[in-house]
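Sample intake sheet
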Amino acid sequence: MSLFEPSLTVVIPAFNEADNLKVVLPDALRFMSERCVNCTLLLIDDGSKDGTASVIAEYVANHPQRVQVITHPHNLGLTAALRSGFFGAHSELVTWIPADGQIPISELDKMLRAYRGEDLLLTTYRHRPDGLWRATMSKTVRIMVRLATGFADRLEGPYLFRRALIDELNLVCMRSAGSIGLEIAAKSHALGKRIGSTEIECVPRLSGRSKVADLRNIVTYFGEIWLIHRSQADLLASRR
């Protein structure tokens, strides 16, 4: 198996994920050593109150060349954590995986194998048993996104992108979980960037409960779709 040569940062946002990180981090480090020439784990401790900080500190101390950390003094949410990681990366390419184990490291390998030099590589899930309510909400969101931004492709899981891309996009999303991925994809599409896609698996969390699937986040997400719409129009106007 050939090694993946472009430099890569794998961002892992974590909020109260101490138990899950004890499984995810060893797998991630093993993957990096076996699969990548130059890969860094960038952990974002998003104001955790459990033992997340201690778990991360151990890995930073034992693998200082491979593991870095950014700490938020209090919880800011998934999009804010991803922003910190994306803009804090100094590699050619950036991707991310959740700290809860829902995206196994084997699926990150699928993404690297599928990458063909695009500006952005999206992922869709082969199967995710979300139930009727969540499936209906996802369909509603896709319709709203298409109407607001013109972006109609599926974006369900993590994504891989050129680090330089986000410096072009004037990202405005700050709060809602998932909105930053939508913004990157929609604006990249509007600017005619090269976008690819591949299918991956999504599995149940290793332990604990989701911290983003709630009504408050959904309402915030809808509001940020409008922000994306407005800022995308400004971005396109500035390119004319």
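Comment: Helices lie at 18-35, 52-62, 78-88, 105-114, 131-149, 179-190, 215-239. The longest strand covers residues 39-46.
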